[in-house]
């Protein structure tokens, strides 16, 4: 899992699964604490695989953000991720952008 930042955007690439949840969790919380804007975006365009544990980490982070008056936007989620979000009912924690904005 590679994690990069670009202003209020957190860029993830690689496999987002139980092995990388700690690393991503720390990056998301650090990004939320260091960002006074109302929303941060997690760009998942280059995430190759994701599991339910990873989605739960993002959902808990989203609840944390909401308590701080922030929100998490997921960008570039593939159909399989969106399907998992709906089936797990975790979709309610996020605003979804379907496509990444070209640089």
TrEMBL record:
PROSITE patterns: STAS (PS50801). InterPro entries: MlaB-like_STAS, MlaB_ABC_Transporter, STAS_dom, STAS_dom_sf. Residues 1-103 form the STAS domain. CDD domains: STAS_anti-anti-sigma_factors. Pfam families: STAS_2. This is STAS domain-containing protein. It comes from Nocardioides antri.
């Amino acid at each position: 899992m590679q994690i990069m930042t670009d202003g209020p955007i957190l860029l993830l690439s690689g496999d987002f699964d139980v092995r990388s949840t700690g690393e991503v969790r720390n990056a998301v919380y650090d990004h939320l604490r260091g960002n006074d804007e109302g929303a941060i975006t997690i760009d998942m365009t280059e995430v190759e695989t994701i599991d339910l544990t990873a989605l739960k980490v993002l959902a808990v982070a989203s609840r944390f953000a909401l308590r701080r008056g922030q929100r998490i936007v997921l960008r570039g989620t593939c159909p399989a991720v969106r399907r998992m979000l709906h089936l797990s009912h975790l979709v309610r924690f996020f605003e979804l952008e379907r496509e990444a904005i070209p640089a």
